[in-house]
Specification:
Keywords: Membrane, Transmembrane, Transmembrane helix. By secondary structure, the protein is mainly alpha-helical. The chain has 3 helices and no strands. α1 (about 1-15) packs antiparallel against α2. It is elongated, with a radius of gyration of 14 Å.
């Protein structure tokens, strides 16, 4: 389910260019990790997925801002 949970935000972020949609999933994955601390595999997987998704959102934010600045010059 975590794989499906990471594919959906990647798809919608790329298609709709809505980075905040993916941040909702990051928040949810962190919530799963906090709630399931007794299951180490689930906790680590949820944190890993949240981290990958957060890096993806940051990358999209910085590349988008860079491309706007480059076009303005």
């Amino acid at each position: 389910m975590l794989i499906v949970g990471i594919v959906l935000p990647f798809y919608f972020t790329s298609r709709n260019r809505d980075n905040f949609y993916s941040l909702v999933f990051v928040w949810a994955f962190i919530g799963i990790a906090v709630k399931r601390t007794e299951l180490k595999d689930v906790c680590l997987s949820a944190l890993l997925v949240a981290g990958v998704l957060a890096v993806h959102v940051l990358y999209r934010l910085f590349t988008r801002n860079f491309s706007y600045k480059q076009r303005a010059q």
